[in-house]
């Protein structure tokens, strides 16, 4: 198995896996932003009837929501506990998703060019080699297909909001959820995308208002941001 993973990161999320579908838990931010990211993806790459893979799917919040849009969804992750939670929730909800314990790079070797849409959200900042994940996503997607990433910018504002604010002040996330050194600037991510022979089609910021407790999509990529890419047809 490919080892582009931090065992401590996998353990961290595995220990919280049983709380993945509790919208009042540490995963509340994922529940809150999911409708925004889902609609952004669906607007750019209508999901109905598409073959989709979600890299780093965790407990399946995004994967299930894409399946509800009519996509045939595969979710992959390296946390066995998170995948068990995802499988159980899929059975309870009746929303069919195929889950698999496998690294993105190994999946790319098995199912290259099989997917219309590839998503990898809130994961790149948790792995040792994010560029390798981007290359795997580029391998998995069909020519003419779409790839979506989301991650956290690396600057003073991102440190203040995503680490100090979210983990220590507002306590929205457990302390130690994020490692500032692993944050990725839009320029760096765009470089990984181009090196993987994908093209950048759009960039969107995701911000949180602590007063209203509402997330919104806008052009502010200073902290959280999403990137839409596509694979040119040869």
From TrEMBL:
Organism this protein belongs to: Massilia forsythiae
GO biological process entries: methylation
Gene name, Swiss-Prot/TrEMBL: ubiG
Keyword Methyltransferase included in the entry's annotation: yes
Catalytic activity: a 3-demethylubiquinol + S-adenosyl-L-methionine = a ubiquinol + S-adenosyl-L-homocysteine + H(+); a 3-(all-trans-polyprenyl)benzene-1,2-diol + S-adenosyl-L-methionine = a 2-methoxy-6-(all-trans-polyprenyl)phenol + S-adenosyl-L-homocysteine + H(+)
Pathway: Cofactor biosynthesis; ubiquinone biosynthesis
Signal peptide: none
HAMAP family: UbiG (MF_00472)
Residues annotated for S-adenosyl-L-methionine binding in this entry: 37, 56, 77, 121
EC number from the UniProt entry: 2.1.1.222, 2.1.1.64
Entry function: O-methyltransferase that catalyzes the 2 O-methylation steps in the ubiquinone biosynthetic pathway.
Xref: Pfam families: Methyltransf_23 (PF13489)
InterPro entries per record: SAM-dependent_MTases_sf, UbiG_MeTrfase
Keywords from the UniProt entry: Methyltransferase, S-adenosyl-L-methionine, Transferase, Ubiquinone biosynthesis
GO molecular function: 2-polyprenyl-6-hydroxyphenol methylase activity; 3-demethylubiquinol 3-O-methyltransferase activity; polyprenyldihydroxybenzoate methyltransferase activity
Family, similarity comment: Belongs to the methyltransferase superfamily. UbiG/COQ3 family.
Protein name: Ubiquinone biosynthesis O-methyltransferase
